[in-house]
Amino acid sequence: MNQDYIKPDNWSIIEEGFDAERVKSSESLFSIGNGAMGQRANFEETYSAETFQGSYIAGIYYPDKTKVGWWKNGYPKYFAKVLNAPNWIGIDIEINEENLDLNTCTEVRNFRRELNMKEGWYNRSFEAVLKNGTEIAVNVRRFLSLDLDEAGIIKYDITPLNKDAKIVYKPYIDAGVTNEDANWEEKFWEPLEVKKGTNEAFVTAQTFKTHFKVTTFMHNTILANGENINVSPSTIDSTTDKVQYTYGTIIAKGQTSTIQKIGGYTVSLNHENTLAGAEKVIKSAVALGYDALLQNQIEAWAKIWEMSDITIEGDVKAQQGIRFNIFQLNQTYSGKDSRLNIGPKGFTGEKYGGSTYWDTEAYCIPFYMATKDQQVARNLLTYRYNQLDKAIENAKDNLGFKNGAALYPMVTMNGEECHNEWEITHEEIHRNGAIAFAIYNYNRYTGDYSYIPEKGLEVLIGIARFWHQRASFSKDKNQYVILGVTGPNEYENNINNNFYTNYIAKWCIDFAAEQIEKVASEYPADHKRILEKVSLSANEIQEWKKVADDMYFPISEELGIYLQQDGFLDKDLVPVKDLDKSQRPINQKWSWDRVLRSPYIKQADVLQGFYFFEDHFSKEELKRNFEFYESFTVHESSLSPCVHSIQAAALDKMDMAYTFYLRTSRLDLDDYNKEVEEGCHITSMAGTWMSIVEGFGGMRVKNDQLHFSPKIPKEWKGYSFKINFRNQILKVAVNHNETTFTVDGDQDLTIVVNGNPVIASKFVQIN
User: Fold this and answer.
1) What is the spatial distance between Cα 164 and Cα 182, in angstroms, rounded to a whole number?
2) Of the listed 15, 490, 492, 675, which one is catalytic?
3) CB contact set of 170 (below 8 Å; sequence gap of 6+)
4) Which of 322, 598, 666, 747 is most exposed by smallest CB count within 10 Å?
């Protein structure tokens, strides 16, 4: 059974009642971030029971030496990972000489957490009885500033309920942290300098190997009943990597004592002198004060929601789910910095190392294109262009390719491959196709072709060269084949002729050749520059085309479907519905050998190809392939349900589309895969957005126009969303009787609704 303790609410994630078994899951679900940094919802005070401590800084990583029992040529030397950053939220608390620890309190009541997504803050409140008999009420609010994105703020209120109390606050910053997933149990941070002031402190440390320098800082203010009492620390304790201040206060029964703590990080990516930068951040934050910082936070989130919100009427769980997904995406990536990208767990955990996967190009770019300025998506494409040399180096040095062939890494921080599983690192080569498709998708949606002659064509050429060399000619089939791969379905390794991989390889070559011709015609100077730079000849392009034109695709004439790979029908084809529920999820119940021999599909594979290239296939082909493969798909990848939801909606299978939408939108809230304590599935959350906009809304871009085929689940009264299409804002509102299209501005927008052209202006209604 899935977890079911998050209270339904339109704008908040709410937990009521303290349960130690839920602490790690809630630490993930109530995580906060601001694009520059983020942290799990760890308690500020001491907690002696099981917890997963985690604070993270965007762009800061460590090359953890790969730990395997064997080695092969080309194997990545390290697994890059986002680091558990120095802890700035910590506040040890003593009340009447008793340490506050929810694990040792004799009673905890009225425990409540709230992640307010509308305003961008996290709140925790409870009443507790300590072993010494003191009863207290606690309220803690924390947020990471969007405007001042190197700073976070904590307001920690304590009210003694049954007696006066001596309260001792011991706020600290600590660089002596480790990662849960460290391969060799080594420390990643080298302390450099500690600086102490009256109520502020700084610890500067740098990462071993990568030498990122970070100054972690804090500034403390003690208040009584909301008034600053100008208390200085009674003691200051410090080591080479930790500073802790002690503040003693006495508060009467029923009165409220407060510590306000400003903390955060300045990093060498952005500051020549991180200590001086930290001092400036504190000065700015203190000058604003807590109330102004909170108000600015509320206003900043209001601007985000104005464009990115999706409303759902009549289904609170569905509404809560989509807003949670949109909120986490906006917490994780702001689009300000092309050096940054989006890790599968964002700032909510360490799994997958916080690195960049193909998820960004396949799932995230559509969300950011439609809800932000197009420069945000362009920055994500620029990220890959800036790493093209590394992709060429990866193909050459690790796989023996030549002539500028590029294989982008499955997992990366800086362009180097750093995945630690052979079948993923060297076989899941379809990721190259997703990067090329993102370039196509960006141009299709934004109409901005300039990226291709400026940067994208070089990427497309490197990718086409890779596919040309990776394919081999089969005399038996008299066609080109691609052997020894892993497709999107990672429950199949080292297979031959994965349909999705072969199809996207052919498409990449064709698309690259088309763009070379277009750039030659429309941007001759760029064409000349690029072809000279990469030494590309017309003869080489013809050799590519031979591979694309004669690519082999496995099919079943009898079933009228494309086969996921050669030999798929040789498996024992027992559908998922006949699989004992006690055996799910199979990746936690079965041996890997048993998983590989089964017909079960981790995520959309053949159907991923139908999603990307929908116009290449008929509706009847989609129906046959969908119905066949859906019966064997266990959706144990977070990237799977959204594709199935979109395609079920296209096939008018609305009950199924709705079920898949709930699964993708509440994957973490309801912990479908029983792993949320490791962190949330950030990149797949963009798929939830697609499930509504592309699935139920039926939005497509064809021939430079928006197309819609709106549908609505029977469980909903209505829904609405906004998109930024070529710098015009269009609002779409759907209910069971009509769809309305509203353009923000005076310029009309021609759209196509259910196959019919419509001029959208300030208000257009379609019955």
Assistant:
1) 45
2) 490
3) 91, 92, 93, 94, 244, 245, 246, 247
4) 747
Sign of torsion over alpha carbons 643, 646, 651, 654: positive
Judge if the upstream peptide bond of residue 585 is cis by omega within 30 degrees of 0.
yes
Q: Respond yes or no: is residue 306 known to be catalytic.
A: no
DSSP 478-511: TEEE--SB--S-TTS-SBS--HHHHHHHHHHHHH
Ranges of beta strands (E only) in 268-378 are 310-313
**For every residue of 418-442, which 3-state class applies, written as one string?**
CCCCHHHHCCCCCHHHHHHHHHHHH
Nearest C-alpha neighbor of 451 from the set 531, 523, 553: 523
DSSP structure string for 685-720: HHHHHHIIIIIIS--EEETTEEEE-----TT-SEEE
Burial class of residue 502, CB neighbours in 10 A (0-12, 13-18, 19+): buried
Question: Residue 227 phi/psi, 5° resolution?
Answer: -105, 135
Angle at 313 between CA 684 and CA 377, to 5 degrees: 35
Q: Give residue 1's pLDDT.
A: 47
678, 345 Cβ separation under 8 angstroms:
yes
Q: Say what the pLDDT of residue 519 is.
A: 98
Q: Give ∠ CA 230-236-239 in degrees, rounded to 5.
A: 150
Residue 124 is predicted with a pLDDT of: 98
**Number of Cα atoms under 13 Å in the Cβ half of residue 610:** 28
Specify the 3-state DSSP secondary structure of 625. Answer: helix
CA atoms within 13 A on the CB side of 21: 2
Segments in the chain below pLDDT 50:
1
Q: How many CB atoms lie within 10 A of CB 745?
A: 12
Q: Among 383, 268, 355, which Cα is nearest to 81's?
A: 355
HSE-up (13 A, CA, CB side) for residue 469: 20
Place of tokens 């569905």: 318
Amino acid at 244: Q
